[in-house]
Structure of Ribose-5-phosphate isomerase A:
Amino acid sequence: MPAELSPIDKAKFAAARRAVDFIQDGMKVGLGTGSTAAWMVRCLAERVREERLKIAGVPTSTRTAELARELGIEVVTLDEAKWLDVTIDGADEFDPELNLIKGGGGALLQEKIVATASDQMIVITDAAKEVAHLGAFPLPVEVVPFGWQTTRALIEEMLVSMDVMGRETTLRQNGGKPFVTDEGNYIVDCHLKRIGNPRQLSLVLNQIPGVVENGLFIDLCDIVIIGGAEGEVEVRDINEGTVTQGRVDFAEESNIFSDLD
Ligand SMILES: O=C(CO)[C@H](O)[C@H](O)COP(=O)(O)O
């Protein structure tokens, strides 16, 4: 393993490596977006190469599609795949019920569509993203550019009546311009601090005209895999009610790291 890999990257790698053990030959797999998901794509590509697995991957962003293709994973569209066996993705926050905030990387719309079209969603993460209540991480809301300021005002007005602590919103920027998603939309980040009722907030947000989708993932995640910097991994399965501990041996994964050099 390269010495320069930070403890957080080691933790993300450990979770990602454990997650790809869930993939079997012939599966259709949703490929998430973000730095943790990128580790998962690298680990999956390694299994595809070594074990000659036949996998069809449905990426959740152009970034992930490029990485998957580059590493030799067969990429298909969701319409071609129709339904997926499993999606593996990162998250910005998760709570004890495995509800999530996602969209820090701006890919929440495709991520939510792909996760919803999967038998199972596995979230890979490090321990710092576990919270008692969602909301410390700003909640991303994807809005169409047409009339976005009106949509933002409606979001702020709606937040007044919701069980949240903060109400400030910001338009996500990229190099001094609005950040534009793969679907050509903008993102309004809502700084809520604490979300009392994520399920209700998600429903209400999506009723505002101009809102395309929000970053609350409710009842979508089945398994969370929490990685640690020493290779330790905890697998929590909300449906089975099980928690299992394991370890990833970084030395055994040297091929993945040598590919990075
Ligand atoms: O939702 C996402 C992208 O839209 C990511 O999964 C989330 O932001 C976590 O990213 P990272 O693994 O880089 O911490």
About this structure: The mean pLDDT is 96.
